[in-house]
Fold this sequence. Notes:
InterPro entries: ADH-like_C, ADH-like_N, ADH_Zn_CS, GroES-like_sf, NAD(P)-bd_dom_sf. Helix 3 packs across helix 10 (327-339) and helix 6 runs parallel beside helix 8 (280-288). The protein has 11 helices and 17 strands. The chain folds into 2 domains: 2-161 and 326-378, Medium-chain alcohol dehydrogenases, catalytic domain (Quinone Oxidoreductase, Chain A, domain 1); 162-322, NAD(P)-binding Rossmann-like Domain (Rossmann fold, 3-Layer(aba) Sandwich), CATH 3.40.50.720. The protein is α/β, with parallel strands linked by helices. Strand 10 (180-184), helix 4 (188-199) and strand 11 form a beta-alpha-beta unit. The strands form 4 sheets. Strands 3, 4, 5, 8, 9, 16 and 17 form a 7-stranded mixed β-sheet that branches. Strands 12-11-10-13-14-15 form a 6-stranded parallel β-sheet, sandwiched between helices.
Amino acid sequence: MLAMDYRGPRRVRAAQKPMPEIKHPQDAIVRVTRACICGSDLHLYNGNVPDTRVGTTFGHEFTGIVEEVGPDVTKVKVGDHVLVPFNVACGECHFCKQGMFGNCHESNTQASAVGGIFGYSHTAGGYNGGQAEYARVPYANVGPTVIPAGMDPDDAVLLTDVVPTGYQAAEMAGIQPGDTVVVFGAGPIGIMAARCAWLFGAGRVIVIDQVDYRLEFARNYAKCEAYNFNEMADPVVFIKKTTDFMGADVCIDAVGAEASGNAMQTITGRKLLLQAGSATAIHWAVNSVKKGGVVSIVGVYGPTDNLVPIGNVLNKGLTIRANQTSVKRLLPRLIEHVQNGIINPKALITHRIPLEEVADGYRLFSDKLDNCIKTVLISPSAKI
Length: 384
């Protein structure tokens, strides 16, 4: 089969790989119909996440047709068109039973933090992902969810990560009616977090980024204010001034390891890899939020140390909430929001690219070319 193949930092290609096989009675094999390139994939692509091994197939956002199931699979059947949450989750461990599917204790047994993730580094279990013609899906009684009749596959594929992660970013923030919410990052997750902030009653939503076309997209899609931090002397001072020097009620870090804006953070976190990515967005969030405010983190960092202003967290009495998104927990509500027209996920998709051209897709997204917001890969076996 054709699949994305990682060859090292900023080197990916489409290559022929063996077909996936049933390895466990609860496995399913799906023929992939849609697969996205995520901003989190760019952290791998650019070499910012440890133990990303040559030969890995990325892709944790995908939909597909069930082609084969193991003997213990009862929740999906051959022929079902399913969306596959990015979490690999058993559904039975202590954490899954609490709805913390992003922290499954069984799917990534060598880790003490994150659960399994499709198509990510071996720190997340080493599972191959869905940027391929076919994918093996473990725990098929838990993750794969049948796409409702009439739902556009382009909407469904964004329910595997982008919509739930943006929604959980707003949910974790504990937004109260009338709150001022600042989102750092105008990628797909940040834009969705800004859109979802209104659902929780925000009175004002501000997005901070440095790419003008993304900021314009955020203004139109999320109906928010959007500002370029390169046009500010200091983003923290700007936010303080625009909130009567109180600070925002909530700040959301939707950037993660590759944040720009601070030379020291960029050099130590992105160039020399002395910390788990540039923590610039965390600094801005902690220093921009009001005393007693909430910082919600969904931007991805590597599993090592970061230089963060923990003293300011203490002295300001802040609440920090962060996690990988528990997609399965949120799906029922978000499917309803999509069906009722409250959220329009597919509007984020700006580029559809054949899987054969995956290298071009990564360069386009990573280098922010051609006004790219979200890229979807279409495999030659998609047929939908």
